[in-house]
Amino acid sequence: MHEQLKLSNQLCFRLYTVTRLITQAYRPLLEPLGLTYPQYLVMMVLWEQDNLTVSDICHRLMLDTNTLTPMLQRMEREGLVVRTHGLADGRQTLVSLTKKGIHLEESAKDIPACMSQNWHGEDMSLDQMTNMVATIDTLIKGLQ
Length: 144
Prior knowledge:
This protein is mainly α.
């Protein structure tokens, strides 16, 4: 077997595994809020800046419109967001938080601290985590 084809030598597999495990770790924190992890990401974008176009949200989350649109439709049915056509450009769709979506932020405020405790256990220092984030950011920039 070629050494470069071993699963244990693949960075992509490690990143895939970390992503899956992180998403799994979020599940028990997000279930009481009625959110999936991707929906939580959308909510964080809107809590940071409400009333964005679908394309703005796609850009911030690095998603395609055909991935985001069905998610926004579900979130609208659940009463978290409302979608409207832009006044200046009717082709644009604006996404805004509903009262329910705004109030959900208060319920979600402790999630980052809970996840941080999971990551910053005895095995990983804050400096190591900061360095890892910087390395991942470099990788993302290189792949774009």
